C-alpha cells in the first residue's frame, strides 16, 4: 500500500503565492507578449460611458484612479428613515430648514472649469491639469454632500463628458440651456451661465423651455416676468407639438401635389372642356399658398427679434421658423467662426436637445433615444451658411433637490430602476389632488380615518391599493401589486397624463394653477368636486354612536324571529326591519325581500371578484 498523500490545502497555496513557488500565473500582465496587450485601436479610444449613479465601491475606485494615489477611506452617509414619515418625505418645517441650508451653500454649487492653457502647453500637461482640476471639484462637492440636509442630483462623474462641454462653450456664440417646462429651475444651471461669461463676456445665454405646450398662456407669462426680473433671455418651444405640425403639413403638401397633378392631366386632355374649371382650381391653390406665406410666423418672430440685444421676452410659443430667427438675431458680437453664428445646445438627458434639432431641420440627422447618454460626442449641424448648431452630450449637472423622490418624478432617475416606490408615489399624491386622481383613473380612494383631515392628500398605500385593484394588478397570492401599479402611475406623470407644473418663486400653486386636468378627464373631476361640495355626508362620530348604542333585543342561543331585532309578524303582513333601525309600522300588502333573515347563506362569496374578497387590505 503506497504512502498516503499529504493534503497541503490552502496553506501550501498561500506559501506558493507569497514566495514564488510553482508555475507562473497565466493572467499576470507582466508576462504577456506585446501582441497580447490592448494597444491597438481600442487602447486610445475615449471612454465616453456616462457615469451618474454609482455605488460606494465604484465611486471609491474611480476617485482613487483619477487621483493616481493610494486608496483612502471615505465616510459613508447613512440615514435611517422612519416608516411613519410617509415614505421619507419632508414635512413643512423640514422643507423650510432644507431651503435655508440650500440658499446658504448655493455659491458652492459649481461646474468644473477647464484650466488655462496656451500653445506651449503639451497634451500630457493639459491632461494632468484637467484631471487635477476635476478632482478638486469632486472633492468640493463631496464636502458639500457631507453637510446634513443637502441632497445633490447624481451628477456626471466622467471627465470626458465635461471635456465635451468645455469645447462646446468655447466655440459657441450663444449657449442654450434646454429645460423642462414643468420644472425649469431644476434643470437650469446658474453657474454654467457664469462660466460662459468667464470664457467670453460677449457670449450670450438663453433658456429654451421645451414642452411649453404643457403651460397655459397665463403660466408662461408668469415665467416671463420672473426671467425678466433676473435679466435672462427665455423662449418657449415644444418639439413634440412642432413635430406633429410638420407631419400634418407634409400630408397636406402630398395631397396638394396629387391635386395639382390631376389638374395638369385635365389641362393636357383636349377632349375634356374643363379648361376654365381647372384654371379656377389652380388659382385657388395659389391663393392658399399666398395666404400661408403671408401668415408665416417667421416674419412675426423676425420683427420681435429684430431688436437684437434689446429684445423683450414674450410668452408666445415659437415654431421652428421662429426659433431659427431667434437664434440668428440673438448674437451681435464677434463670432468664434467668422461669418457663422454658432448655437451650443446644453441640457440634461431627455430634455429634448436631439428632438429639437430634428424638428428644426425637419430631418432625422441626430440619433434620438429615450436612454440617457445616447449622444456621445458633440455634433455640429449647419442650418444655413451663417447658422451652425452644436449639440453637446446630455449632462446631469449638480443641483440641490429635496429628496430622491423628486429626481424620480422629474425624470432625472429612470422609473424602471427605482428601488423605493413609496416615496415618489407619496410625493405625486401630495402634488395631485384626490379628485384629480379619482377622475383620471376612475377609482374611489378610501376616506381618511376619523380624527384626520378629510381634505388631506391620499397616502401611497391608499392610492396604489385602489389603482391596483381597479387595474387588476395582483400578485399570485391575491395581494395588490403596489410596485407594478406605481411604475405605471409614475410613467403617466413623466409623460404628462398627470400634469403638475412647478410655479416660479414667489407664486403659490393656487395662483399658478399648478395642477392641470386633461380635457377628457375634466368632466369627471368637476363632477367629483361638485358632489363633494354639495353633498352633506353624515358625521362619522354620529354614525359610530348609532351603531354602538343601538338597543338590541338579542337572546343567546336563539334562532328564528327572537334573534332578529325589531322583527314583527302579524296576520296578513310580513315585516323585516334592519339590525340597527327601529321597527316600522307594517303596511297592507307589504312583502319582505328576505322573509327569514336569521338564515345565513354561506355560499354567497363564491361568485364575488377576487378584489372584493381582499378589500380589507385596501384600508
From TrEMBL:
Transmembrane segments: none annotated. It comes from the Eukaryota. It is found in: Cytoplasm. Its main location: cytoplasm. Residues 249-265 have a biased composition (Acidic residues). Residues 1-36, 246-310, 579-619 are annotated as: Disordered. It holds the Pfam family MMR_HSR1. GO terms for cellular component: cytosol. Residues 597-619 have a biased composition (Basic residues). InterPro entries: G_CP_dom, GNL1-like, GTP-bd, P-loop_NTPase. This is Large subunit GTPase 1 homolog.
Amino acid at each position: 500500500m503506497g504512502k498516503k498523500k499529504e493534503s497541503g490545502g490552502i496553506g501550501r497555496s498561500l506559501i506558493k503565492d507569497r514566495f514564488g513557488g510553482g508555475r507562473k500565473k497565466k493572467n499576470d500582465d507582466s508576462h504577456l507578449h506585446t501582441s497580447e496587450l490592448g494597444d491597438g485601436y481600442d487602447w486610445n479610444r475615449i471612454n465616453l460611458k456616462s457615469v451618474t449613479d454609482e455605488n460606494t465601491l465604484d465611486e471609491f475606485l474611480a476617485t482613487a484612479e483619477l487621483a493616481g494615489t493610494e486608496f483612502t477611506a471615505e465616510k459613508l452617509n447613512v440615514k435611517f428613515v422612519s416608516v411613519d414619515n410617509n415614505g421619507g418625505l419632508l414635512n413643512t418645517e423640514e422643507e423650510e430648514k432644507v431651503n435655508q441650508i440650500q440658499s446658504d451653500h448655493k455659491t458652492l454649487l459649481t461646474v468644473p472649469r477647464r484650466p488655462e492653457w496656451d500653445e506651449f502647453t503639451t497634451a500630457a500637461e493639459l491632461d494632468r491639469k484637467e484631471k487635477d482640476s476635476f478632482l478638486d471639484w469632486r472633492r468640493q462637492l463631496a464636502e458639500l454632500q457631507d453637510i446634513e440636509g443637502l441632497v445633490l442630483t447624481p451628477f456626471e462623474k466622467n471627465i470626458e463628458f465635461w471635456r465635451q462641454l468645455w469645447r462646446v462653450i468655447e466655440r459657441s456664440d450663444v449657449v442654450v440651456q434646454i429645460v423642462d417646462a414643468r420644472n425649469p429651475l431644476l434643470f437650469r444651471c446658474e453657474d454654467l451661465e457664469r462660466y460662459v461669461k468667464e470664457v467670453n463676456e460677449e457670449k450670450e445665454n438663453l433658456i429654451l423651455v421645451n414642452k411649453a405646450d404643457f403651460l397655459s398662456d397665463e403660466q408662461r407669462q408668469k415665467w416671463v416676468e420672473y426671467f425678466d426680473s433676473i435679466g435672462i433671455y427665455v423662449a418657449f418651444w415644444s418639439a413634440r407639438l412642432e413635430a406633429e405640425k410638420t407631419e400634418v403639413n407634409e400630408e397636406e403638401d402630398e395631397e396638394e401635389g396629387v391635386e395639382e397633378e390631376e389638374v395638369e392631366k385635365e389641362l393636357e386632355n383636349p377632349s375634356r372642356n374643363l379648361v376654365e374649371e381647372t384654371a379656377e382650381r389652380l388659382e385657388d391653390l395659389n391663393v392658399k399658398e399666398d395666404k400661408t406665406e403671408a401668415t408665416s410666423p417667421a416674419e412675426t418672430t423676425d420683427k420681435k427679434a429684430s431688436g437684437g440685444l434689446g429684445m423683450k421676452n414674450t410668452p408666445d410659443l415659437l415654431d421652428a421658423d421662429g426659433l431659427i430667427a431667434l437664434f440668428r438675431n440673438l448674437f451681435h458680437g464677434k463670432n468664434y467662426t467668422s461669418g457663422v453664428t454658432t448655437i451650443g445646445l446644453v441640457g440634461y438627458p431627455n430634455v429634448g436637445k436631439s428632438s429639437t434639432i430634428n424638428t428644426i431641420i425637419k430631418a432625422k440627422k441626430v440619433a434620438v433615444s429615450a436612454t440617457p447618454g445616447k449622444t456621445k460626442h458633440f455634433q455640429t449641424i449647419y442650418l444655413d451658411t451663417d447658422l451652425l448648431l452644436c449639440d453637446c452630450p446630455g449632462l446631469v449637472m449638480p443641483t440641490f433637490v429635496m429628496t430622491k423622490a423628486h429626481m424620480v418624478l422629474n425624470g432625472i432617475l429612470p422609473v424602471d430602476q427605482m428601488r423605493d416606490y413609496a416615496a415618489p408615489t407619496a410625493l405625486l399624491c401630495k402634488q395631485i389632488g384626490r379628485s384629480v386622481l379619482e377622475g383620471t383613473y376612475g377609482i374611489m380612494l378610501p376616506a381618511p380615518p376619523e380624527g384626520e383631515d378629510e381634505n388631506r392628500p391620499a397616502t401611497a398605500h391608499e392610492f396604489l391599493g385602489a389603482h391596483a385593484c381597479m387595474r387588476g394588478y395582483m400578485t399570485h397570492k391575491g395581494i395588490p401589486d403596489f410596485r407594478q401599479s406605481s411604475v405605471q402611475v409614475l410613467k403617466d406623470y413623466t409623460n404628462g397624463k398627470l400634469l403638475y407644473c412647478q410655479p416660479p418663486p414667489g407664486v403659490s400653486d393656487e395662483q399658478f394653477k399648478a395642477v392641470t386636468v386633461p380635457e377628457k378627464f375634466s368632466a369627471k373631476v368637476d363632477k367629483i368636486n361638485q358632489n363633494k361640495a354639495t353633498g352633506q355626508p353624515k358625521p362619522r362620530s354620529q354614525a359610530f354612536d348609532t351603531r354602538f348604542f343601538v338597543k338590541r333585543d338579542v337572546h343567546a342561543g336563539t334562532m328564528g324571529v327572537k334573534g332578529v331585532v325589531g322583527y314583527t309578524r302579524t296576520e296578513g303582513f310580513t315585516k323585516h326591519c334592519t339590525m340597527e333601525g327601529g321597527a316600522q309600522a307594517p303596511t297592507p300588502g307589504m312583502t319582505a325581500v328576505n322573509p327569514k333573515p336569521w338564515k345565513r347563506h354561506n355560499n354567497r362569496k363564491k361568485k364575488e371578484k377576487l378584489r372584493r374578497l381582499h378589500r380589507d387590505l385596501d384600508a
